[in-house]
Task: inverse folding
């Protein structure tokens, strides 16, 4: 099952269990919140952030779904707090680029993405790209919300 | 009692007719266990579609030229064959896009009938009740939500138990003297449960309610006699029964068809049109505004011929055996929850499962890596999944071309899923 192992790298399976950032931020404390859902398979992520000036301060999420979507939320919860808002948006863009290329990889993006670079194999499984992107799409929306209020 | 099934040599011959079954997926022979979503098409059906396109392309029921006449004959002959296949008369069978469209047509026609109640068999208004079940496909739920909203009637559901199962007693507890429509699936698309049709029809008739049968998962798989069942309306789709996509069947019992107005109006469904109004054709043309999917209708007739040649009794027996093998095999695997009737109870060749600790999407991915095509998700039955407390399930569904070896491959792959994701150790 080598193709399968490209998709489910150990770091993804580990994050699917670790669930960093799950329940870390309640609705009252959050500065922005976004619920994203993948209607075809029922993946759900409710993502919340707080900001501190130009930075994303804290990230919390709740959700259910496949290991790809949940691991992706865990990696986001681990890596995004403390980034500048611009850097967080860069991660979203890099994720999107990585998942939409089919096999051509961009070293700079992979380096930037850290643990999230493990999702590179998802690009070969078009049905799963939405799962991996789900929490990042939610993050992008929360960043847009706080920018609109600046 | 007859125990006729599909003999091994016949099964080999049947499988030779389905080009996809010779394909490899992910380096494995394809095990196609997703007929519940769409059936594969055999070469004889594909040949008829192509040949019709090459020799009979013309508008039906219009024009006087030879080609148009030949096309019309083939089209109406198809109607006769498909009506006979489900125990109906040809004038009771109208074409739709698919079963979803057919169920919407019933709902929309009933809504329209309320605007000219003198013609209606069914008056629907505040205080009246439309009944469906908690296990329905969205296609047999949303049209009734719409009809309730349009008429002021109340939509009530027959509840299911923790396995997704409902009984005639559950139905009788919901159907009351204000019930005007009872809509339910003959075979549950998630549960594989066979509905107690006779008892529901009896309960509905006793209060003067119409019965609407979603026959999507029954018409392809078992002998069906709509007159004997006594339902007022039924719907099924060509693409689930070896036919092409794009055409479905709406059955309306003759009296109901004559009483109902059309949901859609336009060409080919009228007798007289003035600038102010129109008189409609009788059924079935009344419900077929505009040019229909003629090639697909003829293809569906070829599919029905193919099914008849194998025999629906034999197909049903073959699939019941496969369904039992699925249910019994799944019962022996740790961490598997089987939805629907438990192993040992009646079920068709369909089984939906929850793998404890692993999302259905991940289960489907592991199956696909072994060449096994199964369906994952909520199968267009979100209320049922919510009732069962799960977001999604994994469904294997069989057909006349499915082998025991394919079922065993599914069972074997499922038994390895939790270990792959490091669950349950």
Result:
């Amino acid at each position: 099952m080598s193709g399968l192992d490209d998709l489910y790298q150990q770091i993804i399976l580990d994050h699917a269990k670790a669930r960093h950032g799950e329940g870390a931020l309640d609705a009252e404390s959050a500065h922005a919140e976004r619920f994203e859902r993948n209607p075809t398979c029922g993946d759900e992520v409710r993502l919340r952030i707080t900001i501190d000036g130009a930075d994303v301060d804290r990230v919390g999420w709740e959700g259910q779904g496949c290991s790809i979507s949940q691991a992706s939320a865990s990696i986001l919860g681990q890596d995004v707090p403390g980034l500048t808002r611009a850097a967080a948006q860069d991660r979203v863009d890099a994720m999107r680029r990585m998942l939409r290329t089919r096999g051509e990889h961009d070293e700079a993006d992979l380096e930037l993405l850290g643990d999230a670079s493990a999702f590179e194999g998802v690009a070969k499984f078009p049905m799963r790209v939405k799962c991996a992107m789900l929490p990042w799409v939610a993050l992008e929306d929360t960043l847009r919300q706080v920018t609109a209020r600046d | 009692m007859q125990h006729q099934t599909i003999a091994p040599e016949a099964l080999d011959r049947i499988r030779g007719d389905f080009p996809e079954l010779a394909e490899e997926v992910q380096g494995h022979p394809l095990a196609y266990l997703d007929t519940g979503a769409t059936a594969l098409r055999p070469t004889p059906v594909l040949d008829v579609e192509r040949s019709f396109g090459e020799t009979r392309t013309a508008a039906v029921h219009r024009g006087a030229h030879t080609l148009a006449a030949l096309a019309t004959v083939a089209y109406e002959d198809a109607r006769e064959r498909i009506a006979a296949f489900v125990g109906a008369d040809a004038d009771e069978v109208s074409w739709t896009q698919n079963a979803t469209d057919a169920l919407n047509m019933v709902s929309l026609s009933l809504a329209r009938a309320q605007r000219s109640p003198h013609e209606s068999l069914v008056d629907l208004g505040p205080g009246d009740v439309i009944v469906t079940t908690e296990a329905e496909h969205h296609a047999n739920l949303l049209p009734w939500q719409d009809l309730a909203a349009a008429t002021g009637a109340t939509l009530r559901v027959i509840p299911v138990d923790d396995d997704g199962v409902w009984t005639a007693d559950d139905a009788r507890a919901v159907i009351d003297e204000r019930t005007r429509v009872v809509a339910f699936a003959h075979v549950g698309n998630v549960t594989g449960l066979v509905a107690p049709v006779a008892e529901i029809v009896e309960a509905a008739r006793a209060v003067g309610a119409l019965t609407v049968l979603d026959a999507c998962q029954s018409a392809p798989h078992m002998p069906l006699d709509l007159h004997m069942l006594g339902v007022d309306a039924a719907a099924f789709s060509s693409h689930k029964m070896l036919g092409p996509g794009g055409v479905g069947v709406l059955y309306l019992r003759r009296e109901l068809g004559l009483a109902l107005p059309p949901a859609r109006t336009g060409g080919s469904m009228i007798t007289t049109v003035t600038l102010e109004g129109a008189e409609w054709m009788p059924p079935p043309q009344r419900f077929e505004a505009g040019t229909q999917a003629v090639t697909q209708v003829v293809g569906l007739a070829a599919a029905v011929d193919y099914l008849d040649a194998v025999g629906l009794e034999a197909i049903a027996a073959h699939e019941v055996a496969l369904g039992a093998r699925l249910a019994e095999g799944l019962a022996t695997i740790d961490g598997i929850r089987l939805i629907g009737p438990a192993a040992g109870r009646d079920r068709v060749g369909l089984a939906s499962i929850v793998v404890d600790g692993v999302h259905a999407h991940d289960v489907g991915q592991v199956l696909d890596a072994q060449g096994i095509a199964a369906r994952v998700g909520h199968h267009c039955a979100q209320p049922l999944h919510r009732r069962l407390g799960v977001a999604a399930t994994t469904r294997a569904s069989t057909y006349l071309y499915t082998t025991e070896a394919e079922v065993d491959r599914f069972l074997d792959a499922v038994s390895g899923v939790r270990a792959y994701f490091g669950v349950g150790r």
User: Anything to note?
Assistant: Chain B touches chain A through 19 residues (CB under 8 Å).
